[in-house]
Amino acid sequence: MAIAEVLSPQELRLVAEKAEQKSGGFLRERTSKIYRSFAFSKPRIDIERAKYFTESFKATEGQPLVLRWAKALYHIAGNIPVYIDDCQLLAGRVGCPGKHGLIYPELDGCFLDKISENVKNRKNTPFDLTDEDAKIIDSEIAPYWKGKSFYDELAYSFPEDVLKVTYNPENIYEARFIVNETASMRSALQWVHDYEKPIAKGFKAIKEDAEKELAALDPMEPTDMVDKAPFLQAVIIVSDAIILWAKRHAQLAREMAAKETDSIRRGELQTIAEICSRVPEYPARNFREALQCQWFTQSFSRLEQKTGATISNGRMDQYLYPYYKKDLDAGLIDEEQAKELLECMWLGMAQYLDLYISPAGANLYSGSAHWEAVTIGGVDEKGDDATNELTYVFLHSKRGFPFNYPDLAARVHSLSPERYLYEVAETVKDGSGFPKLINDEEVIPFLLAKGADIAQANTYAVSGCTESRMPNLDTFTTPCPYVNLGAALELTLNNGRMKTYGDELLTIETGELKDFKTWEDFWQAYLAQQEYLLKQAFKQLYIIIKLREKHFASPFGSSLHELCLKNHKDLHSAYIDGGVEIGYFDFIGYGTVVDSLCAIKETVFDRQKLSLEKLCEVLDKNFEGYEDIRQMLMKSPKYGNNDSVADSIAKDIDLEGLKFAHKYSKKMGFHINLRYVPVTSHIPFGKIVHATPNGRKAGMYLSDGSSAAHGADVKGPTAVLMSNYNSKNRGYHERASRLLNIKLTPACVAGDEGTHNLMSFIRGWCDLKLWHVQFNIINQSTLLAAKKNPEQYRDLLVRVAGYSAYFVDLSPELQDDIIARTAHSVI
Predict the structure, then answer these.
(1) What secondary structure letter does DSSP report for 314?
(2) Which of 49, 100, 136, 246 has the fewest Cβ atoms within 10 angstroms?
(3) Which of these is catalytic: 110, 465, 480, 564?
């Protein structure tokens, strides 16, 4: 007799939606209306920010960059169209109604003359562009930035050895995905503002403080007048800019209220007008004003620059709690009203899509990914548990409002309360991929090793996929390079060459196949190729660090950072005194390469079942006609199974990366740490890597993060945790986050017993001091059905990398990647 599948709450909602033939059936009528107004529309490119930014830059040439940026923001704030959506309770969108993306010509100027080709007509994540806007780009924006954008200078600054593993030397706009820079796709790494500053203080006071500092400068001192004065002037201008922008929203709300015939909506608009007249100029007095101030601050940041994964929300359950508690005790708000306000923010957030114009950027960040993490839980500055009533509001909201924004991130520590872990587990079981978990027991010691004091480390916020940030202390903004480990292996097998790029010598010659008599010979050749790619990554990063402050400024973000204000320096300055400079480089395809090296070691050298020459012949033919050999190779030890052979090789690969970083990052003046966070880069990176000895076929995705290769982890999720633990080199502090995906069937976490089993699993993960873990709780049949009939599964959310996205919006390759992940049926 067939046994019915156990469905997750998300899957049950999808069944109900199909039966009722509707989508986005949220509990509240307001949020359902807002969602349906944009949910399935094609996003549009909004050019207003680019147009006014360009106009201002044309008028300010020759002035200090930070001052030019501030003046551009003021020009944008005074001229960009403002909107208040129907039914919305919060104001402050940065683009046209519906889903939209912004153009940042200072970053992408060299691609703007091909924008229709690169964005409008592409298969994955296309955007609409009106003919009128295309003409403005062609006539006003693109011509000014041609030759002035960051990419233009960067590509021509790389020496030949760096260039040939980064771009095609004959077409520098074509990425090679061997060592990929990400700095030309975003002007900064993910970031977290100190939101308490504008909420508790207001921008009027921030401006007044800068005016006092400016007046105190010595007019005869050259460094004061040349360096410090422009920075302080910029802070004053951006403070005026956001106040002006808010007041324009207040005026719009008053005008809309005057025309509104519905008395309830008229009252809502009048309240919006009153609130926008006050914040963010003055301190917030209640929960709603604090939330509106935060939203204005976060949204205005999008107008300033293209930050990787945008600006995170920080520890919202901490800095908003005093306002929530005060209103709750006074009877001015209840949990449902608070959740409705939060839902309005999440829906506003969802309408902005991170637009990547360059072809490489579109490939690396599939699914219009942006993830403004909301951090909950963890410890406070004294090290005590920080959960409060608002923490649980966020968890309840995520289950009652099944949406991909915000990206909820739950900090966990060894003394996290039982109730908190229970609510976290119940939210994970919902099946939409939230929350992702970050481990205080790993992250806080890491931050201490980088120079933070205990209070600063304790109060970190989650940012981006899996990273941590300390507002007012972190100062490193340079985007990181990605290193393709799959390419390193293929370069070893082909003496510095790759099938995708023909006979061109891309790296160094480390030996012909006949030269490798022992496993140690081959292993040393692989390490030499990996080290060569690391050398290029570090050279690439160093060049980028030196160039960026000539091209980017962030006066608004700097106005919210204590060290920038103290040093009178912009965030994009190469060095800010007193800051903690934490940067990254990423290894991509870790599990794939570990399993491939295991196959080579066991099959070729230990058991001598196959020669290296024969192996390369099989790989060259992509296993066609050699399925028996492929199956033999696939029986070798695999990472993700608590296997000592595989985990030892994994640990050695990790060790060599850490040793390189330990030796050379200090000389660069920054902490450059090894990270395993691919976003979706393992898809395009896999496309240029031919067949690999673990049985993977040519062009297929590589493994993601520190997860096992697809289907390789056959001994359960606890074994996956143990492989992660076994492969860590705990003697080095050059370690950073390891992204770990776990896929479970709903049946294995069903009921109260399943919740407690999941809680125990989370406790075990915490005790092992692993950085990160996130879950997909879903049946394989649902994913296969969604790929076959996408219109019936529009609302299906899946955990991709450090973010969740709608499954049907993902590329076919990324859908296959998620389908192929091992679904564990026992926890």
Answers:
(1) B
(2) 136
(3) 465
Is 467 catalytic? The answer is yes
Do β-strands 191-192 and 311-312 pair in parallel, antiparallel, or remain unpaired?
parallel
Does the annotation count 616 as an active-site position? no
Are 311 and 298 spatial neighbours (Cβ–Cβ below 8 Å)? yes
Q: Which of 281, 442, 467, 581 is catalytic?
A: 467
Tens digit of each residue's pLDDT (9 = 90 or more) over 662-705: 999 988 888 999 999 999 999 999 999 999 999 999 999 999 99
pLDDT tens string 508-518: 999 999 999 99
Provide the CB-side half-sphere exposure for 196 (13 A, CA): 12
Within 561-681, residue ranges assigned H as helices are: 562-567, 590-599, 612-620, 627-634, 644-668
Q: What is the pLDDT of residues 453-471, one digit of tens each?
A: 999 999 999 999 999 999 9
What pLDDT shows up at residue 1? 33
How far is residue 814's CA from residue 66's CA, in Å, rounded to a whole number? 39
**Tokens read off for 450:** 């980088």
Q: How far is CA 805 from CA 391, 536, 800, in A?
A: 23, 33, 7
Q: How far is Cα 308 from Cα 370, in angstroms, rounded to an integer?
A: 8
Q: Per residue in 592-607, is it b (16+ CB within 10 Å) or e — as a string? A: bbbbbbbbbbbbbbee
Residue 126 has what pLDDT? 80
pLDDT the model gives residue 367: 56
Give dist(CA 626, CA 453) in Å, integer: 58
How far is residue 477 from each of residues 235, 305, 364, 374, measured CA to CA in Å?
19, 12, 19, 20
- DSSP state letters, 469-496: E-TTTB---PPPPEEEHHHHHHHHHTTS
Estimate the crossing angle of helix 627-634 against helix 612-620, to 10 degrees.
120
Q: What is the DSSP string of 531-569?
A: HHHHHHHHHHHHHHHHHHTTT---HHHHTT-HHHHHHT-
Distance from CA of residue 590 to its chain's centroid?
A: 19
463 - beta bridge partners?
A: 467
Report strand pairing: 735-738 vs 167-168: unpaired
Read off the pLDDT of residues 23-66 as tens digits, 9 standing for 90 and up.
Answer: 655 678 999 999 999 988 889 999 999 999 999 999 999 999 99
- For every residue of 724-783, DSSP letters joined together read HHHT--TT-S-EEEE--EEEE-GGGG-HHHHHHHHHHHHHHHHHTT-SEEEEEE--HHHH
Cα–Cα distances (Å) from 355 to 56, 124, 145, in that order, read: 22, 12, 18
Alpha carbons 534 and 519: distance in angstroms, whole number: 22
CA–CA separation, 795 and 553 (whole Å): 38
Examine the pLDDT at 232 and tell me if it is beyond 80: yes
Average pLDDT over residues 344-369: 82
Q: How far is CA 242 from CA 296, 301, 818, in A?
A: 8, 10, 41
Q: Which two tokens stand for residue 246?
A: 């808010």
Nearest CA among 705, 511, 504, 679 for reference residue 594? 705
Q: Cis ω on the peptide bond leading into residue 143 (within 30° of 0)?
A: no
| Helix or strand run (H / E) with residue 168 | strand 167-168
